[in-house]
Structures are given as structure tokens and as C-alpha cells.
Amino acid sequence: MTYRPGHLATLLDALSRRDDIYLERGEDFISKNRMNIQQLIKQDKVQTSRYFSVKMESFSNLIYSIQKAQWQDSQYRSILQELGKGNSIQDYSLDSSFQLLLFEDQVVVPNDPTIQLRILQKSHYSPLARHPGQEKTLKLVKRNFHWSGMTQFTNDYVSSCQQCSRSKNILHKKFGLLKTLPIPNGRWICLSMDFITQLPLSNSFDSLLVIVDRFSKMAVFIPTMSSITSLDLAHSFIKNIFSKHGLPSSI
């Protein structure tokens, strides 16, 4: 194998670099190369706005809805009027293409859940986005829009998406199967206990400690306070259960 200078390799890419195909640029170049991507993008389908790259009627309806909602909101209407007079307001500006109110170059969306939901649907169900998670959906929305409570609204929306819930990855170990508790061999051997809280105050007590024998289903109701500590619970158990029925094998 010997080195050969590139200018001597005249037949190196003869099949892929035919000089009779790419004769010239411009319209002739596009018409003679049908697979060129420039022919797939028509000028009448391109929107020059910095917010929407592809012209779609649904986006036009959304823009109109946002415009209408901004003027109906008393707070944003006053800002629009001041900007229309030529006055400057910190962090606010007016978009020259659609006459939309902007906050730090993001479209201001008034407190209208219907419009906010439409924006989230376009960001979350977009064929390019393909159901991103909470953080990615929020990032997509924040690129172009701004409204108060956006983070919580987005998280609630994504967490309620059925398709995301069905297809998301499980990051923890699978839960074990439910198993029934074994049947006790006698009374007061296996117990269960729980608290009933937030009861009306009676004799300075507002809660009940309920202890149930799983064999006989006998229940003991012990008045107590919601501020009971583990030490107080132990004393109450010894006084009301252990002193009468002995020490159980499980609780």
C-alpha cells in the first residue's frame, strides 16, 4: 500500500460526484434535484415569527385568544395602553408581529385556565415532544409563554396524563402481593391498634386509642390526646391491656 496524493485520485468518487447533476444553484438546482429538502418547504408555509415556526390555523386561533384575554384583563390592559403610548415599563414589551404583551420576551398569558390548558396540550401532545415529563414540558412552555403559577399548573396537568402514567418507567422495586394475616390461635395473642383523632373535646381528650383482639374481635377504646408520645402510649398499653390480658405475640 502506497500513498497517493488526492489530486491524482480522479476517479475516487466518480459515482457520487457526477458533474452532470449539480449544474447550477437556484431554481434550476431545485427542479433537477427532486429529493432536495428545499422543495419540501414552501415559502407560504413558513411563519417568520420568532414564536411559531410553522403556520397553523390552530396557532392563529390561540394567538387571537391570548390577545383578547390580555385586553380583558384589567392589569395587562393598563400595561398595553402605556406601551401603546410609547412609555416603557420594566420587563414588559410589545411584540411587533402580533401586538402581544411580552414579559422578558415571553408571551404573557392571563389567568385563563382554558388558554393555559390549550398551550400545555400543544406542548405535551406535540408529535415532536411525544409526552415529555413534568420538567421537560415546563421547559417547553417557558420558552415562549409566561403566567403566574405555571409550574404547579404544568405539574398537575402532566401527573394527570393517562398515557404518561401507563408508559412511564418504574424506578422502584415492584410491590409484593398482598397477603392475609394468619388466624390467631387464641384471644389477645395478636392485636391491631389505631388512633381516631380530631374528635370533639371531652374531659380534655380529643382522640381515642383503639386496640382490637384479632381473634375475638373485642375492642378496647382508650381516651387520649392527639399529642400523645410513644412513652405515653406504652404506659397506656401496659395499664389497659398488658395488666389484664398479658403480653401479645404480635401487634
TrEMBL record:
Q: Spell out where the chain crosses the membrane.
A: none
- Lineage of the source organism? Eukaryota, Fungi, Dikarya, Basidiomycota, Pucciniomycotina
Cross-referenced SUPFAM superfamilies, in alphabetical order? Ribonuclease H-like (SSF53098)
Q: Name one GO molecular function term.
A: nucleic acid binding
Q: Which domain of life is it from?
A: Eukaryota
What's the protein name? Integrase zinc-binding domain-containing protein
Q: Which residues form the Integrase zinc-binding domain?
A: 113-169
Q: Which Pfam families match?
A: Integrase_H2C2
